[in-house]
Fold this sequence. Notes:
The protein has two domains: 234 residues, Alpha-Beta Complex (Naphthalene 1,2-dioxygenase Alpha Subunit, Chain A, domain 1); 108 residues, Rieske [2Fe-2S] iron-sulphur domain (Rieske Iron-sulfur Protein). The protein is 24% helix and 28% strand. Strands 12, 13, 14, 15, 16, 17, 18 and 19 form an eight-stranded antiparallel sheet that branches. A hairpin with a 2-residue loop joins strand 14 and strand 15. The longest helix is centred in the C-terminal third of the chain and has 31 residues. One of its GO terms (molecular function) is iron ion binding. It holds the Pfam family Ring_hydroxyl_A. This is Rieske domain-containing protein.
Amino acid sequence: MLDTPPARTRTLAARYYTDARILDREKELLLNSWQLAGHAGQLANPGDFITLSLFDQNIFLVKDRAGEIRAFYNVCPHRGHQLVTGSGNKAVLTCPYHAWTFGLDGALRGMQKRGNTDAPDRSTIGLSEIRVDRIVDFLFVNLDPDAQPMAEFAPGLEAQILACVPDLPNLVVEGDAAYGHTYSCKSNWKVMLDNYLECHHCGPAHHSFDDMMDIAQSKFDLHQNYTYQNAPTAMKADNAAFPLDLEHDVTTGQFWFLFPNTIFGQFPGAQGFYASRFDPVTPDLTERESLSLTTAVPTDPDMAERAGLRTKWSTDVVTIEDRDLCENVQKGLHQRGYTQGWYVTDPDAHDISEHAMRHFHDIYLSAMGETE
């Protein structure tokens, strides 16, 4: 557990959620922090690549011929054209514009020229590389070349995840269509994370979730730059959310938040795991980008059916409930009658306590150089 300074009683002021000038500053914070980029399972073979965008910065990750996963800015140093799109496999990286060719290590291998062509020395040119790190097999990038390694930024996080989910290294990538699915929300990215970091709203707002879970036994632990939540179910095979197989399924939810905008989780139900990144688009719009894992082999003959029912519930029920809550809050943050809220905290009742949300705000204010 983390030793925390004297607690603040007031939440972040509304301006942190609505002011475009704040988002301009947050852009640098996010670009210079560890951002979820993908999973090592997506880059199984040399030449496998994936792409992502963080604000206006385009990036790709690729496995080189030595088996190392590397990340580069997705831009040709010749004239600035994008090198690759989507995902796939390439033996070499060839720019579509002028056919400059790069190895999987980022070094320039070839360009069009003739005997009298005046062109730069190939040995002096290469792709601009970006820092890569990982937690278990989840890959992260950081545009700050001097950033702390993840093991120093969030000490103990990887070990804790593996202790709680020892089979995680054996899970395989499922995509974004499962219970950690990708979607947009008309709210600030921090509103969505505030919602994730407290269960004060779970009873009033998530009736089926409340029926499945034993929310009163939920516990949050605070650590350096991350939080952990242990959330047991009520051990009810039949509940208002989706059916649980008490022999084969996960019966205790385990969730992590990694500052600034990544979450990990093992949700109750069919065996699996997910990770999500919350990308601000505007102060009032966020895109959640997700990646789900599942078992390589089903745990039992009915696993796929139960997983499908959980996905349908996640998509059609709890996500809609949370999205409606967050979008309603975002509207409220623009009201002249609201300037700043209060925390409700209780050391013995984590089901209603908002201390994990306050911990997020404390880290955020420090990173932003703010005191309010």
